[in-house]
Amino acid sequence: MNNRSYSGAWPVAPTPFSENGAVDFEGMRRILDCMIDQAVDGICILANYSEQFLLTDEERAELTRLCMEHAAGRIPIIVTVSHFATRIAVERTRYAMELGAAAVMAMAPYHGALLKGTREQTYEQFARIGEVGIPVMVQDAPLSGVDLPAPLLAKMARELDNVRLFKIECAGAASKLRILLELGGNRIEGPFDGEEGITLLADLDAGATGCMSSALIPELIRGVIVNYLAGRRDEAESEYNAILPIINFENRQCGFRAAKAAMQAGGVIKSDFCRHPIPPLPAETKKRLLGMLSQVDAVALNWGK
Fold it and tell me: For residue range 41-56, what is the model confidence (pLDDT) as tens digits?
């Protein structure tokens, strides 16, 4: 069994909206309850799969408080604090820590395709975030467009006391995880992958101990991780192969709309509405997704029935 501090399934909670586009705060509470019943190890809020880029600052603050108060210590919460401005990222971090967050997560600073922080500026921003005094997860996501080579990430782990968690979801994640763990060693407490777990088995082979997927089927993803870390690789591989078509369909056809579609169908939330300019999930795509989920008895598809 791997003895790293952070392991298992730490999925991203979607943000529910009413049909008129308003944040559905009661639906948010129900999502948290559903995810806890999915037996996950922790929950991440306000990430890209939470549609954080479609929320106002006021909504972010209210959602952070609501989630922390409703979780009420039942499960650890990671709060995403990404922002191009270091000062704002630090303020968000301080706010999350004051409310009792277990950790924060941030991408490298960027604003569009052409306004991106350098490697040095990225290091400096994470140093400032870490100074707040809460564990920090670096999200190595293609969305930022900022290249974060493994030696830079390992340097953060070695030199910045609170920067010990890494979500690697770039192309070639397994190779990067191997280099990161070789260079960073025991300073890295949480090597995670992302992208819905589409390369999970390869990433576990490379040393990952956790996955930050969506809230679609985290209970099934967690089973793969638990078996793998317990040395039951054959069982883990069999379980993973059984759910890989769903993961692939979500990753390539649905994106963050998948979890909300399942939760609406399962009675968790009233609507799977996404704010413009995000289009709704096509009817045939949704039908196919729900059909696949029904074959694995997904918690999200049955929770509210």
Answer: 999 999 999 999 999 9
